[in-house]
User: Which sequence fits this backbone?
């Protein structure tokens, strides 16, 4: 309950650290950069939370606009925690939960949640189509006895661009001789965005369904395509009785490469910059695995952006925004800000390790008119070219 | 009163529909800063918040406000422990963070020309590209040199690079006219040579220093930078008692070889060093506390060669030893934090307000000899009000920072009284203690603050107050700038304190 976060709310010093990354000066908050008013940064959202607690503000669609545009990237936590020991995102997500409870939810967020409830995915697509991306490439349904279960997630399953990343990953695993399978049409939304949006009951339902499916299959080791899935399976599912190991695919493949079980022999001379996805990087502190993979490909020169690792600037896709698009695609939308930064590195490829980032950043490349100059590729897509 | 819908339409015409709002959710965040939290002060919602991008837009907003007599409250980032950017009478909050260009970093003149939405951190990054650096202040990294430094007269960390770094500026006066100061006051000067402050008579740039926005909205500032030396180093010394530490600081500052200088007591040093989560653990605090002296003197030196640095260290070391001080041996992790704080415009400086994020700041600028008495006075008053450190479960010991001005001819003394804002009784006592501290320091030692407020205006000699009020009336005939606030240069104003 919001009341439980009174300490956070009243101890906010209004210092504004949540608005800019120390020593990097990069932008931190996607919605803040997009809209500009303090109400779209953590500093303002905490004040909104205080006003709600003190009954000075009722929860309306206008409040929803300010709150649900938070993409849960945790950049505010990253700046605030070392200084004040506060995690503003926890307050913001609690506020979202309060708004869900009160029925004060943006229409697009409502659609997102309703689609997941009805169809098991936010796109409103039939569950029967969930594994269509895997047809004809030799990826099979997980059977008890398979060593790994590859969990794809909604974006990788249904978004046409991200399906390419799913196919690439599947192909890499096949090439490496890994024993794995997918859940196929039995897979349900992992619930990470549902939880971020504050719909906790729906999240519990989804998690319990997925955990049940995994238990029935006796799956003990999960590899995820998406950091969103990785985050929620690693940090939330165990609270609901999950008992399996989970790794993001970059962690898994990095180990295969290190152990020489996957050999990347085909080199190509190319400058690559890497975008840290929020749910792999900031939320789970995994910054190195993707970089180690990229650095191990012959000929690849890895160049870093200014806002990197814990200071990485979010693509803007989290908190369901890859679907709700509440941040839009104006010049100061987060994806375009990030693409402009990537472009200044001189890299020809922007490597990503998240299907949400792939979709958001590729759209941003097009909006910036940089299609001929900068290609967005999932790390799995780069690896398959190097095998 | 004015027609809000009409004003909204006018503002949209100036800045565009995306950069103005009258929605409650957008207005609420602008009604609070750290000061309002301390004093549990509620200010009314403004009518609008507007985000201009250029001097032209600012001017048009101010002219509109004048026409309809609408109060205006400009702010860069609004990071404030003094309540000087709150909308005491509603009106229009002018949020300047979109004006964020660093127009120039000039190696020859060692200046930067910036807009009010530039932070210290960003300016430092840009300056370093040309082997220059900011001349640091004690405040945090994400505040504006315009709001945080120029308009408040806030602490200097260095007397070596001259205390005042403001050179010339451009401002929109509250009457809607534009002024440029110093050598910028002519068109040719503005284009070719905006780098000389003391041009053409009285120091008009100086008039804006400490004005808090009463005389206008700064839209461009030429600010002095310093050269980055080949070798820069921080030295750390400890003292058991305050007086020897002060004596040493004064002697060393008069050698004119330090880049930065600050003196702090153990209570603030422990806070800088420990993460807030660690700070709450008694054993962690005690462990660090045992390693620190009662008073720490941190000095920054800079030079071209190792020989030069070693010579400075030797000279400084001798002064320290004369007063029975000694070099502090500290672990690398602690050194890194202290180096960051000593460099100024840091992140960890904000830890001094942990663990509650709520504090009362007692500021007094006075002579060095007055400092021990001032410290004693504040400590006595803290005991009088029974303020407690609820983590250590013992009487609160106020934090102390002493920063020299102008070769330590005078010093800036800052005490912090920390408390939990959720503890209503503690907040009430802390506020009363704070007020009495200011009265006592003022009456016993003549300790002054850098910022005038309504109370101080009444205590000033009439000619001084009338000068400030008269200038304000001249440039702000409709009384729209900071209207109703505690820092407005007008008497008979019940707003604020």
Assistant:
């Amino acid at each position: 309950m919001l009341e439980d976060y009174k300490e956070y709310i009243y101890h906010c010093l209004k210092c504004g650290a949540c608005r800019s990354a120390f020593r990097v000066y990069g932008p931190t908050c996607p919605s803040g950069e997009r809209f500009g008013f303090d109400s779209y940064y953590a500093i303002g959202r905490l004040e909104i939370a205080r006003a709600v607690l003190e009954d000075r503000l009722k929860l309306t669609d206008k409040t929803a606009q300010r709150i649900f545009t938070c993409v849960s990237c945790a950049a505010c936590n990253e700046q605030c925690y070392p200084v004040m020991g506060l995690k503003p995102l926890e307050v913001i997500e609690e506020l979202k939960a309060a708004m869900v409870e009160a029925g004060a939810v943006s229409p697009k967020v409502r659609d997102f949640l309703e689609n997941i409830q009805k169809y098991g995915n936010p796109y409103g697509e039939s569950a029967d189509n969930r594994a269509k991306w895997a047809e004809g490439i030799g990826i099979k349904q997980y059977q008890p006895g398979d060593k790994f279960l590859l969990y794809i997630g909604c974006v990788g399953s249904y978004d046409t661009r991200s399906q390419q990343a799913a196919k690439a990953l599947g192909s890499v695993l096949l090439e490496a001789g890994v024993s794995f399978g997918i859940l196929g049409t039995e897979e349900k939304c992992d619930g990470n965005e549902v939880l971020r949006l504050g719909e906790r009951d729906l999240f519990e339902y989804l998690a319990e369904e997925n955990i049940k499916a995994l238990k029935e299959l006796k799956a003990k080791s999960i590899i995820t395509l998406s950091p969103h899935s990785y985050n929620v399976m690693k940090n939330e599912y165990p609270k609901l009785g999950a008992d399996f190991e989970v790794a993001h695919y970059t962690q898994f493949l990095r180990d295969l490469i290190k152990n020489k079980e996957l050999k990347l022999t085909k080199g190509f001379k190319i400058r690559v910059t890497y975008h840290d996805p929020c749910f792999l990087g900031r939320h789970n502190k995994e910054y190195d695995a993707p970089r180690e993979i990229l650095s191990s490909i012959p000929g690849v020169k890895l160049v870093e952006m200014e806002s990197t690792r814990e200071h990485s600037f979010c693509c803007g896709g989290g908190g369901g925004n890859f679907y709700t698009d509440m941040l839009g695609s104006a010049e100061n939308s987060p994806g375009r800000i990030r693409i402009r930064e990537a472009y200044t590195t001189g890299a020809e490829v922007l490597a990503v390790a998240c299907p949400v980032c792939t979709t958001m950043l590729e759209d941003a490349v097009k909006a910036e008119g940089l299609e001929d100059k900068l290609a967005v590729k999932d790390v799995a897509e780069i690896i398959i070219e190097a095998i | 009163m004015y027609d809000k819908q009409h004003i909204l339409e006018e503002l949209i015409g100036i800045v565009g529909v995306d950069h103005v709002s009258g929605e409650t959710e957008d207005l609420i965040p602008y009604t609070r800063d750290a000061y309002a939290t301390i004093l549990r002060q509620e200010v009314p919602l403004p009518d609008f918040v507007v985000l201009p991008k250029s001097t032209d837009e600012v001017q048009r907003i101010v002219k509109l406000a004048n026409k309809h007599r609408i109060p205006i409250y400009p702010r860069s980032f609004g990071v404030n422990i003094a309540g000087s950017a709150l909308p005491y009478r509603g009106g229009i909050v002018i949020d300047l963070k979109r004006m964020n260009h660093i127009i120039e970093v000039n190696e020859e003149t060692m200046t930067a020309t910036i807009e009010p939405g530039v932070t210290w951190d960003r300016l430092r990054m840009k300056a370093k590209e040309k082997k220059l650096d900011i001349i640091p202040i004690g405040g945090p990294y994400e505040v504006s040199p315009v709001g945080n430094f120029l308009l408040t007269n806030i602490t200097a960390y260095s007397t070596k690079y001259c205390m005042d770094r403001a050179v010339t500026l451009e401002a929109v006066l509250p009457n809607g006219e534009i002024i440029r100061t110093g050598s910028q006051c002519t068109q040719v000067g503005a284009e070719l040579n905006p780098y000389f402050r003391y041009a053409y008579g009285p120091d008009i740039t100086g008039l804006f220093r400490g004005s808090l926005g009463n005389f206008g909205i700064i839209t461009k500032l030429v600010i002095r930078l310093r050269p980055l030396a080949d070798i820069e180093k921080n030295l750390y010394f400890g003292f058991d008692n305050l007086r020897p530490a002060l004596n040493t600081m004064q002697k060393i500052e008069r050698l004119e070889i330090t880049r930065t200088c600050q003196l702090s007591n153990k209570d603030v040093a422990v806070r800088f060093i420990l993460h807030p989560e660690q700070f709450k653990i008694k054993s962690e605090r005690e462990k660090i506390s045992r390693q620190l002296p009662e008073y720490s003197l941190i000095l920054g030196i800079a030079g071209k060669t190792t020989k030069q640095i070693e010579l400075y260290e030797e000279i400084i070391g001798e002064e320290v030893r004369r007063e029975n001080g000694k070099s502090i041996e500290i672990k690398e992790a602690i050194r890194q934090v202290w180096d960051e704080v000593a460099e100024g415009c840091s992140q960890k400086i904000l830890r001094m307000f942990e663990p509650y994020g709520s504090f009362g700041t007692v500021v007094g600028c006075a002579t060095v000899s007055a400092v021990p008495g001032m410290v004693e006075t504040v400590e006595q008053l803290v005991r009088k009000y029974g303020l407690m450190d609820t983590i250590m479960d013992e009487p609160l010991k106020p934090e102390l920072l002493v920063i020299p001005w102008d070769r330590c001819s005078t010093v800036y003394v800052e005490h912090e009284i920390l408390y939990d804002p959720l503890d209503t009784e503690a907040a009430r006592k802390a506020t009363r203690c704070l007020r009495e501290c200011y009265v006592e320091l003022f009456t016993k030692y003549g300790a002054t603050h850098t910022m005038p407020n309504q109370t101080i205006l009444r205590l000033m000699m009439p000619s001084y107050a009338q000068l400030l009020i008269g200038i304000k009336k001249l440039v702000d005939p409709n009384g729209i700038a900071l209207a109703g606030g505690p820092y407005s240069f007008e008497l008979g104003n019940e707003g604020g304190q």
